[in-house]
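Hello Y.,

Per our agreement to keep a running log of every chain we model this quarter, I'm adding this entry. I've kept the format consistent with earlier entries: sequence first, then predicted structure.
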Amino acid sequence: MKGQAQGFEQCYHAQLAVDRESRLIVAPGLTQEVNDKQPLIPALERLRAVPAELGSVQALVADNGFLSEANGNACAAPEPQGAPPIVPFIARGRERHHTDLMQRFAPEPLGPVPQEPLAAMAHRLKTGEGRALYALRKSTVEPVIGIIKSVMKFRQFLLRGVDHVAGEGDWVCLAYNVKRMHRMQAT
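Predicted structure for the entry above:
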């Protein structure tokens, strides 16, 4: 990645797709891109490759770093196996920590849902269901990242090279999933 100084730094950006109910990592990913816009399409490909026996991805909830027209169109594209497209809920702007009362209980948007993917997504995010689903993002993926960093003490990669680091990231995600499944069995 281009660093703050004159040169480049060997940095990696981990991407995690986490199941909302089980909090298991479904599709890990790694990139050297500076922002989140480019890695979403490869993440969609990994999500679409999840075996049908495990279920299908119905919605993708992401922060505004993932917002782009290409990502909206990629989510709206029909699935190769004929499954329904993944419905995106990507924030259109930076979310305030504490929304005011009028915004929290705003009325449902009127009129038909727009056909253009980004406009349709903005419409969905204004609905009560969309706001509730997007609010779950902070309690779905953020705790997983926190557990990996704080509980498992994984804060940096030890290997070099994209392929090696991606493999190390996959091992970390596997270790997290085993830990999570063990915890789920105990309850």
